[in-house]
Amino acid sequence: MDLFWSGLIRRASDHTWNERRSQFSKVFETAVSDIEMQKVSKNQL
């Protein structure tokens, strides 16, 4: 997990702050929707 975050930070620091922010919100939205999908699939079991 640490490797993932350090890679994300390193990649993000190559961009401007605005790009980084939009990139982060995309990652965040993906993570949230992933969690929602997991909740739904658990409820179906």
Describe this structure in words.
- The protein contains 2 helices and no strands.
- Helix content is 89%, strand content 0%.
- The model has no long low-confidence stretch (mean pLDDT 82).
- The protein is elongated.
Mean pLDDT comes to 82
Tell me the helix content.
over 70%
* Estimated structural class: mainly alpha
Residue fraction in strands? under 5%
Q: What does the largest sheet look like? A: none
* Uncertain stretches of 5 or more adjacent residues: none
Tally of helical segments: 2
Quick tags:
single chain; 45 residues; mainly alpha; 2 helices; 0% strand; elongated
Topology record:
Layout lengths: L1 H12 L3 H28 L1
Nutshell version of this structure?
With 45 residues, this protein is mainly α.
